[in-house]
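Backbone-to-sequence.
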């Protein structure tokens, strides 16, 4: 593991030395960090950007493939493609990262967790990962950070352009996507359909029943999954700058897994949103947005010999439970230019959450209203950001968060940043309203984060290093009667770095995270590592364009972690390597091949849950250049 981290650091150094004299390039623009389009060079929060070009070069089969090993990101998966996936940002809990799809909050109302495994990677245009507290702009959940996924879209003035991809691979893996996008003088559109199937692997390894861990049962079979998805988006921009946009994404899946009480789920999630933005006056732009996230899960139980029958699937299965949730959202935002280099963003967010289940929850709905403001000022080499937000929730009452960030740009282009921010996570319906007994009246989990960073983006390369400390209070745990209570405290210290370059046909990305996510509750587990969060991770992506071919590979490594709070079940560290190649047949057609986990490494990110060994994928892609 130490050798892997050293290699990543050396590669980063060589990349910076090689690219230092390259010409300047256009700075990317990101939206998530400040809730408004901002050049990446002017953002004071640490951001990682994954573009559509990165996605096609890396050839991922899941969102997990894209996110694993990024700065501050640790992932736990329970058995391969399509199985439940949890993400831990900067050592915080899996429910402490806010996930947005085209500006709409996603995740079940019951547990508060997004289904990463069901987000279709072929429908994604780009992803913005913002690390650190963002509750002052988004409210609950953004303790560790925010991940926003932007779906594919058309361009104004683009002729109708079809896209197509077909993939086959190990374990019966088949996937396909077809779409069309385009636009006229003022409008644009995109429509796409896709699907994915895998016969899977045995999700939970034999021995879990005897060990009373993992899935707590032994079902030595292959756990298949099948998913379908569709997406629509469009927009229109008038000559006066008024803009109307809308998007819709739906994913539906049948997932097998191992369990005594249920082992098959039919799940769907849908995200829809629309936005109207216009200029009230030259210095004042207003936007109104509406959105909805629906999540539906029907759970079944059948024998160990479960199969995804394409005609009669589910007929012989007994439904043992269901949970349907809906989240309606509305936002009113105002972006005002106060003076040259000074802006004020202020607005109101409204959210309504509802659920329906076979379980008799003590309450099935709640509302939240948040009022926020962000000031940004540029004063020569100095940059200042101040933000505050007040949330009122019908469940837990009122909560106020705030943050301050400062940046200084040196003459050589390097930028020093420092920030302090608070954030919170509201108790979920499962925490507060699951029928354990009387309402438990939990407090929100709260956090304080201090951070310092150094970054630069000269020419075609970029690098950033950030150090931070986060303290989380009132972590929700369980008492001796298995009732949820506010008992725990955690302190997380970390250093993370990233470097990237595109030069002379080389595409290089390097990421390193060193962290200490520790329990600080003062009890018998004080000083223990928080579960499923390794202290060290590293990833390197390296690709080279060679005329009609592109060759590349990735190395991903993680140190050891523990599967439980008591730190009795150790998850060993591991390193995996991928190789990939693309043959650009012509400007439109390409053939891609990838070998994942080249050395067939056996490892676990959650105890007793298997991960894919060596796998092969072959893709035929049609993607005309615009």
């Amino acid at each position: 593991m130490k050798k892997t981290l050293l290699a990543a650091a050396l590669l980063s150094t060589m990349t910076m030395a090689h690219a230092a004299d390259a010409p300047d390039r256009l700075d990317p623009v990101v939206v998530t960090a400040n809730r408004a389009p901002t050049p990446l060079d002017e953002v004071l929060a640490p951001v990682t950007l994954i573009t559509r070009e990165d996605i096609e070069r890396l050839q991922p089969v899941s969102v997990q493939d894209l996110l694993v090993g990024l700065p501050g990101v640790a992932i736990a998966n329970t058995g391969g493609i399509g199985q439940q996936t949890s993400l831990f940002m900067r050592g915080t809990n899996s429910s402490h990262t806010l996930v947005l799809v085209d500006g709409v909050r996603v995740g079940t109302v019951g547990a508060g967790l997004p289904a990463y495994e069901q987000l279709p990677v072929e429908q994604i245009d780009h992803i913005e990962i913002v690390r650190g507290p963002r509750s002052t702009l988004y409210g609950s959940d953004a303790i560790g950070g925010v991940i926003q996924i932007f779906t594919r879209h058309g361009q104004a003035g683009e002729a109708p352009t079809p896209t197509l991809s077909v993939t086959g691979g190990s374990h019966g893996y088949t996937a396909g996507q077809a779409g069309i996008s385009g636009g006229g003088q003022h409008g644009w559109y995109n429509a796409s359909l896709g699907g994915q199937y895998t016969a899977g692997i045995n999700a939970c390894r034999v021995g879990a029943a005897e060990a009373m861990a993992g899935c707590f049962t032994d079902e030595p079979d292959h756990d298949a999954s099948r998913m379908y998805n569709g997406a629509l988006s469009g927009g229109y921009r008038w000559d006066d700058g008024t803009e109307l946009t809308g998007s819709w994404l739906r994913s539906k899946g049948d997932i097998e897994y191992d369990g005594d009480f249920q082992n098959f789920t039919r799940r769907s999630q849908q995200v829809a949103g629309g936005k109207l933005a216009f200029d009230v006056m030259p210095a004042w732009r207003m936007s109104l947005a509406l959105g909805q996230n629906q999540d539906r899960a029907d759970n079944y139980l059948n024998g160990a010999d479960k199969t995804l029958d394409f005609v009669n699937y589910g007929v012989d299965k007994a439904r043992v439970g269901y949970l349907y949730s809906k989240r309606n959202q509305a936002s009113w935002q105002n972006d005002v230019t106060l003076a040259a280099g000074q802006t004020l963003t202020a607005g109101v967010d409204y959210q309504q959450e509802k659920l329906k289940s076979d379980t008799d929850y003590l309450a099935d709905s709640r509302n939240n209203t948040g009022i926020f403001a962000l000031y940004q000022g540029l004063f020569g080499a100095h940059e200042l950001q101040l933000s505050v937000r007040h949330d009122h929730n019908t469940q837990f009452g009122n909560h106020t968060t705030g943050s301050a960030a400062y940046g200084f740009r040196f003459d050589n282009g390097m930028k020093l940043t420092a920030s302090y921010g608070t954030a919170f996570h509201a108790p979920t319906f499962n925490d507060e309203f699951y029928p354990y007994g009387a309402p438990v009246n939990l407090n929100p989990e709260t956090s304080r984060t201090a951070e310092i960073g150094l970054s630069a983006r000269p020419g075609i390369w970029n690098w950033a290093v950030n150090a931070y400390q986060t303290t989380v209070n009132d972590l929700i745990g369980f008492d001796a009667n298995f009732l949820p209570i506010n008992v725990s405290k955690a302190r997380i210290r970390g250093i993370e770095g990233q470097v990237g370059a595109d030069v002379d046909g080389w595409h290089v990305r390097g990421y390193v995270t060193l962290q200490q996510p520790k329990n600080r509750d003062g009890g018998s587990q004080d000083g223990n590592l928080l579960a499923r969060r390794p202290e060290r991770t590293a990833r390197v992506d390296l690709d080279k364009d060679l005329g009609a071919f592109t060759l590349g590979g990735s190395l991903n490594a993680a140190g050891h972690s523990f599967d439980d709070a008591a730190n009795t079940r150790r998850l060993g560290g591991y390193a995996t390597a991928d190789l990939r190649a693309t043959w650009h047949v012509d400007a439109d057609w390409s053939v891609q091949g990838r070998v994942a986990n080249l050395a067939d490494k056996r490892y676990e990110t959650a105890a007793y849950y298997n991960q894919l060994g060596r796998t092969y994928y072959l893709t035929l892609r049609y993607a005309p250049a615009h």
